[in-house]
């Protein structure tokens, strides 16, 4: 299971449906989500759900008169990348045996799947080193 899918699974049923509708529309308001859901939920229920998703950091919103216009804050790919970065950072910060076991595990996982991925990992490392060297100058 992908991390982004795990986040979606952690949401309530209505939260998942509302987030999916906002993603479909790009930008929408409470009334737009209500219409998309076939008016199956009270306006205030959808409004509360949108606010909850905003407070969880999954939606952005802008004031438009007395209402808000909502949009997704992250694509599924951005969510996946951010969650992965957070997980790796936590592992590196809390690891009692240093980062070498973690790095070895990543390399082993990548190389088992595909040697081309290992080449890509090497390319990304070289790219990051060059970037860091440029910053140090």
Count of runs of 4 or more consecutive helical residues: 7
Q: Name the structural class.
A: mainly alpha
CATH architecture of the largest domain: Orthogonal Bundle
Name of the CATH homologous superfamily of the largest domain: Winged helix-like DNA-binding domain superfamily/Winged helix DNA-binding domain
Question: What ranges have pLDDT less than 50 throughout 5 or more consecutive residues?
Answer: none
Radius of gyration: 20 Å
Overall pLDDT: 84
**Which strand-content bin applies to the residues?**
5-15%
- Domain unit count: 2
Strand numbers in spatial order across the main sheet: 1-2
Major beta sheet summary: 2 strands, antiparallel
CATH topology of the largest domain: Arc Repressor Mutant, subunit A
By DSSP, the count of extended strands is 2
Tell me what you see in this structure.
With 137 residues, the chain is mainly α. The chain folds into 2 domains: 3-72, Winged helix-like DNA-binding domain superfamily/Winged helix DNA-binding domain (Arc Repressor Mutant, subunit A); 76-136. It has 7 helices and 2 strands; from the N terminus they run ααααββααα. It has helices at residues 3-10, 13-25, 30-36, 43-55, 76-94, 100-113, 115-136; strands spanning 59-64, 67-72. The protein has a two-stranded antiparallel sheet with strand order 1-2. β1 and β2 (67-72) form a beta hairpin. α2 (13-25) crosses α4 (43-55), α3 crosses α4 and α6 crosses α7 (115-136). The longest helix has 22 residues, at 115-136. The chain is elongated, with a radius of gyration of 20 Å. The N and C termini lie far apart (42 Å). The mean pLDDT is 84.
């Amino acid at each position: 299971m992908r991390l982004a899918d795990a986040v979606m699974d952690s949401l309530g049923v209505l939260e998942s449906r509302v987030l999916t509708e906002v993603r479909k529309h790009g930008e929408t308001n409470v009334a737009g989500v209500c219409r998309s859901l076939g008016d199956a939920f009270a306006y205030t229920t959808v409004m509360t759900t949108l606010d909850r998703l905003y407070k969880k950091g999954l939606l952005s919103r802008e004031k438009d008169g007395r209402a808000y216009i909502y949009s997704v804050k992250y694509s599924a790919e951005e969510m996946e990348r951010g969650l992965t970065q957070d997980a790796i950072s936590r592992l590196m910060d809390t690891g009692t045996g240093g980062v070498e076991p973690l790095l070895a595990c990543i390399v082993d996982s990548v190389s088992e799947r595909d040697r081309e991925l290992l080449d890509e990992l090497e390319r990304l490392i070289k790219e990051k080193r060059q970037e860091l060297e440029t910053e140090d100058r």
